[in-house]
TrEMBL record:
<feature type="domain" description="Transposase (putative) YhgA-like">
    <location>
        <begin position="5"/>
        <end position="189"/>
    </location>
</feature>
<dbReference type="Pfam" id="PF04754">
    <property type="entry name" value="Transposase_31"/>
</dbReference>
<dbReference type="GO" id="GO:0006310">
    <property type="term" value="P:DNA recombination"/>
</dbReference>
<dbReference type="InterPro" id="IPR006842">
    <property type="entry name" value="Transposase_31"/>
</dbReference>
<dbReference type="GO" id="GO:1990238">
    <property type="term" value="F:double-stranded DNA endonuclease activity"/>
</dbReference>
<protein>
    <recommendedName>
        <fullName>Transposase (putative) YhgA-like domain-containing protein</fullName>
    </recommendedName>
</protein>
<dbReference type="InterPro" id="IPR051699">
    <property type="entry name" value="Rpn/YhgA-like_nuclease"/>
</dbReference>
Amino acid sequence: MEILNPHDKFFKETFSIRENAIDFLSGRFPPEILKKLDLSTLTQDNSSYIDEELREHFSDIVYTCFCKEKEIRITLLFEHKSYALACPYLQLMKYLLKIWEANSKQAQRLIPVIPVILYHGKEAWKVRRFREYFEGIDEVFYRFIPEFEYLLTDISCYSNEEIKDRVFRRVSLQITMLLMRNIFDEKYLEDKLKGFFEIGIQYFEEDEGLKFLESAIRYLYYASDIAEKRVIDTLKEISEEGGKLSMTIAAKLIEKGKIAGRVEGRAEGAIEGERKGRIEGLKEAIEIGLELKYGVKGLKLLERIRKIVVIEKLEAIKEAVKIAKNMEEIEKLL
């Protein structure tokens, strides 16, 4: 399924890694439940229980595992929220019903489902029992109200140090939690960005680490307004491959109009602001393209390019960077 929300997408990419799910369960599940689960049998359920009605509300991460003492299968529903819900039970019940309907259609016995909500929004999340939402009713009616719980992990309840040193062990999960915890505090995140990524220096040398790094870079580009160049420069200091990867992703997104559109949007409503935004986006695209293609040598043209304020000329230079056989062909346009 396509997830338009960058928080959901990053969450899904991280938690689709089985080892990350196990690390999360080990660090966050109540001990009395954890000791009953055989995590060695944890398997992602690739069946999609999402229909059109639920598509915008769930990121569709479901795992199953067996209990240690009995041959009973348990379903673990991982759900992410970047904003507080007035009544999360309503959405959860729709999902639980889809899972149990699937059990029934396949002539299976109904499987217990443990809903797990990971939250990193700005507002406080208050956990209430479902029956508390039925205000003013007598207790005699409680037996007619469905009763179940969900397990909440509010990342804001943990410090950055706890996330790194105590709660989680896997580097990719640590970085994910750190980015999501601080994503709405742009200035703080920008200041701490290098420190967050430094814990993955060795991990980024592995194929899995580079794949995760790509996911993290895209999350920053889409979910924050931190300048692309700041992300690139930060990752260059940590990992040569990370620097190249961040430049490549930025170049692709600029080419597709993703980042350029975001830059223009920073000056909404003003024609002059839109023009300046377009110029800024083109110059950034050219700079990244030059460095990708020619390395440090390509950056010697930047001083002259930065003085250009004609959009058409900048667009021509951007196209030339892509197809030129050498720097001399680009210089002819300056």
